[in-house]
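Our collaborator T.R. sent over the components below with a one-line note: 'Predict the complex.' Nothing else. No constraints on interfaces, no templates requested, no preferences about which chain binds where. So this is a plain run: every listed entity goes in together, and whatever single assembly comes back becomes the starting point for the next discussion.
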Amino acid sequence: MVTIRDVGKHAGVSVATVSRYLNDKGYVSEETKNVLKKSIQELGYKPNQMARSLSTKKTNIIGLLVPDITNPFFPELAKAVEETAFSNGYTVVLCNSSEQQEKEKHYIQSLQQNYAAGLIVTTNYTEAEYYRHIKLPIVALDRRLDPTIPTVTTNNVEGAKMATNYLLEQGCKHILCIRGPQGIGVAEDRMKGFLEVVNNAQDIQVETITSPFEFTEAEQKAFNILSAFPTIDGVFAASDASAIGAMKAAQSLGRKIPDDIQIVGFDGISLGALVTPELTTVAQDIYHLGKVATELLLKKIKEEPIDNHLIELPTELVIRRSTK
Amino acid sequence: MVTIRDVGKHAGVSVATVSRYLNDKGYVSEETKNVLKKSIQELGYKPNQMARSLSTKKTNIIGLLVPDITNPFFPELAKAVEETAFSNGYTVVLCNSSEQQEKEKHYIQSLQQNYAAGLIVTTNYTEAEYYRHIKLPIVALDRRLDPTIPTVTTNNVEGAKMATNYLLEQGCKHILCIRGPQGIGVAEDRMKGFLEVVNNAQDIQVETITSPFEFTEAEQKAFNILSAFPTIDGVFAASDASAIGAMKAAQSLGRKIPDDIQIVGFDGISLGALVTPELTTVAQDIYHLGKVATELLLKKIKEEPIDNHLIELPTELVIRRSTK
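Returned assembly:
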């Protein structure tokens, strides 16, 4: 294996000079730089990344912490983060916490001990104390952790208002809201938008249930409430996953979509276009969300100034066949 | 920060002894071990993982290389690998190559340079030369790389035979096979199983198209061939993703499923139960597949003997509503 010593010898300079060059620390003349570049190429020298990391206390690793990789929203996000990071010379470590706080803590510790360059977080434990003590550059994605932490999210209140207004325009009179888990920012914001609209509407009856952003539980809960209230003619679900669960429930009760009941989801996952009928949804630009968050993190890593600590991306109502 | 020196001082032993203890190398008496354990606890000493890795040339990181994280098969697999690894004290780095060979190469290099403990690979570039030179413990998952590399896969030939026989039993006479990409082992095996059955059947007409394991392209291609051959009454798709694409194509042509056309997929992703009608499929036990591969890799990492270099898990025909 070629060592830093071999490079020095080949280039006719000291090991210290090679080290200064490799670590981009201290003065090396342009001429020497060129000679070193050539020697490194000719010898096929590969710096020992780990030894370098130990001295610089930095790697090119970005951690991406997600709560549930089997929720299709997150793979789509991960792809965007990974591609943006990669084209900037960074490698993404995808950490799936499976909604376990212990695991999340472990991953954060491990990333810090391995000198990760930065961290993108989409945790569901936004209150967790340990986020206050992370010494890495960090960006919150689709979640709000702390006003000091740069955040990229969707304008969830506006998106929910858009969906609810659309159900009213389509003539729905008895609306079921399938909200997301208590305490999760995006779930609270979408609920807030929904309530703002229905509270100002006339002659509207409203039911609300809570479900995780997940198919199976949503289907079960929707089945129960749709059985109990046969007059429900509209559903606003705070995620596409729960909307698709509600769709299955309605169909198994023999309710025709959209004739008997209209359904609007939230997220814009690709799956929404694959179910029958295709799902009307408040689409986030998931790829853009991941890309913007990664670019923001790269700025933090490079200690460049950040103008805007809260970036809220707009949503778009994608009308398909689950509404009239 | 507490150092190895502080631990030695506190325990009344030399730094070399602490180092021998921490790296599990060389003799340390049981008594000293107990004293050291206590000192480490009392002082809250945390070993610098990276410095340790540099001396042991090993970390507790397992790389998982997947070709496309947005194909729902892979997040389900990743979850299994991650949970099995985690409960054994390992951390998983998920590397998504987005089907790019350059990226795959980069990830493998980076994992090696960072002293990953091992690698689980589900690449689509099974011929790639660089797999022959990897110096890490490696397990191939759902793909065959090399007879010397332990492999966990599904019995794809048998699964495909089961699906095709079922379509024949259901009375299909004109069958479309949507095969997977040329040169990918699982795609070839599923094709082989399909052909074995139809070549031995009487009065059966067969069409074949090739599609990646992905929705959109499968939908388009299925649309074209279903338009050209209105008598096609059965589809065997080599993945659930392409089966769901075919389903959408059939529906947009006004063909009733399963009355006019019956469809069977392959994989058993959760999504299959969410589409309408629910998809009949050759289900792999995806979680089990990931778990077994991880356990096999852990054996290799610990240099334990491996009895079986090719583990083929059985499949199960899950009959839902896309067949009669």
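Summary for T.R.: Residues 286-301 of chain A form the longest helix (16 residues).
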